[in-house]
Structure formats: structure tokens, C-alpha cells
Specification:
By secondary structure, the chain is an alpha+beta fold. The chain is built from 2 helices and 11 strands, in the order αβββββββββββα. It has a 6-stranded antiparallel sheet with strand order 1-3-4-11-6-9, with no helix packed on it. The structure holds calcium ion.
Length: about 210
């Protein structure tokens, strides 16, 4: 009985740790010289925590440039996966760390899209990979820029897992941005704290009774 309680506490202990997405809002960065945007390319080291597709034209960072109407509400910087030439297929990815294998997590992010950039062939589309699991989001914009909060729930299969965002829009569709990326345990840490608290109380009662 006692060992079961100790085991329960030991299992609960690491759950309270939050998963880590490095630089999930892209606010920590250095550019190659520009102050309003940065073309991203494979090997670019100015956006810590993130890696990029080989297509150097496919990805760029938009900013709160005065003349740029497609601003992010999440700080100053966003990543526009359509890049400067409205191509498709570009991706960014990061390694999410501090995961506990076997537990459920929720990946939260925002997609930025605009009616000003709709290709005749369809709406912006974003493929999200959590490990090897693919989820595709079709984002139908209604305004100059809409920011749509989306989520993917996934089970951790390793302490570190790669999360990738890939532009799967029809060619010619511009502006499909990603911002505000985070990962949290499901259920929330507060719920685990309540469970752990109850286990501690039970353990205390057990000890008292067996003295
Ligand atoms: Ca941001």
C-alpha cells in the first residue's frame, strides 16, 4: 500500500513540468540587416529554436512595419510561410522538449490569413506535424487579416518531439502566417496538482494510521 502511494507520487511528480517550445512567438531574433522582414532559409541561425525548409523563397518573417497591413497581435514578429513569392510547400519546425512520454499534450498556435491573398483555386491550408502525425487545417479568411486560434492534441512518444508547420496552400495563395506557438499538458497542471495534493493527504493519513 505504502509503496503504491510512493509510486503514485513519483509518477505524478514530473507531470507538473510544462513542455517547452523555444521562441514560440518568434520574438527573439536577429536579421541579416533588414528591420521589417527576414527571408528564412535552411541554415539561417537568426531565429533561435527553429529550423526551415530548403526553399529560401518560401518563408519569411513579417513585422509591424508601418506600411504592412498584415500585423500580428502576438508581439511584433510572425512567420509567413508563403514568403515573398507566394509559393507553397515551405515549412518551419522546432523541437518541443520536457515532454513526458505517454501523456497527452495540446499544441496551440494561431494561423494568420487574409482575403486579399486568396488564390482562385482555394483557401490557405496548413499541415501540422506532431511527431509523425499529420493534421491539416483549411483556413477561410473573412478580413484583411484574421488570426485563427487552432490546436492539436497529441500523445508524447518521446521527451523531445519535432513539431512542423507546412504551407500546403494552392500555389498563388499568399499570407499564411503562424504565431504564438505553445504546448501544454492535458489536463492542465493545476488538475495534476490537485490530484497530487489528494495523494499527499492520503499518504499522510496512511502514515498516521500506521504509526
Ligand atoms: Ca509573435
Amino acid at each position: 500500500m505504502k509503496s503504491n502511494l510512493l509510486l503514485t507520487l513519483a509518477l505524478l511528480a514530473p507531470v507538473a513540468q510544462a513542455a517547452t517550445v523555444p521562441n514560440g512567438s518568434f520574438e527573439t531574433n536577429t536579421t541579416d540587416g533588414g528591420t521589417t522582414y527576414q527571408t528564412l532559409y535552411n541554415g539561417f541561425a537568426g531565429l533561435p529554436g527553429w529550423q526551415f525548409s530548403l526553399d529560401e523563397y518560401g518563408v519569411m518573417i513579417g513585422t509591424a512595419d508601418e506600411a504592412y497591413p498584415y500585423k500580428t497581435p502576438f508581439g511584433t514578429w510572425q512567420v509567413d510561410l508563403s514568403g515573398a513569392n507566394n509559393l507553397t510547400g515551405a515549412w518551419i519546425q522546432t523541437d518541443v522538449t520536457d515532454l513526458t512520454p505517454g501523456l497527452q499534450y495540446r499544441l496551440d498556435f494561431a494561423i494568420g490569413v487574409s482575403v486579399n491573398w486568396l488564390a482562385p483555386s482555394g483557401s490557405p491550408s496548413l499541415k501540422v506535424l506532431t511527431g509523425t502525425t499529420e493534421t491539416t487545417f483549411i483556413a477561410a479568411p473573412t478580413g484583411v487579416i484574421d488570426w485563427l486560434n487552432r490546436e492539436v492534441v497529441f500523445e508524447a512518444t518521446a521527451p523531445t518531439m519535432t513539431v512542423r508547420f507546412e504551407n500546403t496552400s494552392p500555389v498563388g495563395t499568399g499570407l499564411i502566417s503562424v504565431d504564438n506557438v505553445s504546448v501544454t499538458a492535458v489536463p492542465e497542471p493545476a488538475e495534476y496538482a490537485a490530484v497530487a495534493g489528494a495523494a499527499l493527504v492520503a499518504f499522510g493519513l496512511f502514515r498516521r494510521r500506521n504509526r
